[in-house]
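Exercise 7.
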Amino acid sequence: MKKEIILAGFGGQGVLALGQMLAYGGMSEGKEVSWFPSYGPEMRGGTANCAVVISDREISSPVVSRPDILIAMNKPSLLKFLPAIKKGGIVIYNSSLISDFVKRGDVTYYAIPANVIAEEAGTVKAANVVLGEIIINVSKVISPEAFTAGMKKVLPQKEHIITLNMNVREAAKKYLETKIDLRRIS
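Solution. The predicted structure, written as tokens, is:
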């Protein structure tokens, strides 16, 4: 098993932190991982992204040019990375901020209102965690327990922050349970 993931959005949306959560989660399961951030002036509101590779074998390079999965928090990021997704790949995007775009017919889309779900669960700042919960449920790249381990490694170790993020994850799971076929609503 080897999954290559691109996570992208505006600086401040938590895409780098989500990438770290996935990488640490993979490590907690004994998998080989790499996390490769890309940012600069983007930290002030432009686009920021990272590449995460999770594998059961040694990883030869952290560079991801043809990802299996894209998590896009905003439209500029979606448009930038969509052409690179492998045929048969998965695109999970924040439909709170992305409404219309030209879709490829050879990938599976999951339109997730991440901002809405996170805000209703307690904080819009955890929209990245909503998409993290979605990716682990639809791709099985790491287990829910491993994602929890990664989340606890990355987030400040304050009980109220961990509890709030666990509530956001629960809200994301409930959202998944209410949708029979997410691909039809995207």
